[in-house]
Amino acid sequence: MTQVFLRIYEFKLFTGFTEYHSEIIAFDKSFSYSDEGVEISTVQNKDGLDGYTLVATYDLGYADIYEYEFEEFYAPDIMMEYTADDYQLFHRNCRFFSLEILNILKPSDAEIGRRVLQDLNRMSTNLSRVVQPVRSFNNTVFKIISAVLLITSVYYGKILPMSGNCKDYTIIVLLIVHFFVMAIYCLWR
What we know:
The chain is α+β, with helices and mostly antiparallel strands and 189 residues long. It contains 4 helices and 5 strands; from the N terminus they run E-E-E-E-E-H-H-H-H. It is elongated.
């Protein structure tokens, strides 16, 4: 038997909106999922780590499963199913992972955790409808700026009434600016 807790943390997205991270505490370990994959840790409270702020802890009661059963029969499948490559911020995230763990552990008050996680998932789905267009707009802006910089560097390289070295330096500076804009665009995606 193990006591099970659900912890909810808030963190800020790149757009400034608030999103929520969840983790399940059982067997004196925390179980969570992120863009780095499944994390099983003895650190049971991420408050203040990686921008997380603890907002709620729910006692979900006790689960009638032994740690060795969980590790032998369930953990390998979960590790294969929830990989870093499959992570999606709004649709396949820590909250779906936490629901999966709750369904395996079946603690006595699991319904509390299910309701909280499902409500957060609904909120996240609605947030994705707002954030995705903002991100698409920003990507379009970066593409336009990049194209303008590239065209400008080529155009000025041909018409600038400068000596060869000065013209070359101007073109190099414009191409460096273009490179940085493209790097920011790639990181933003």
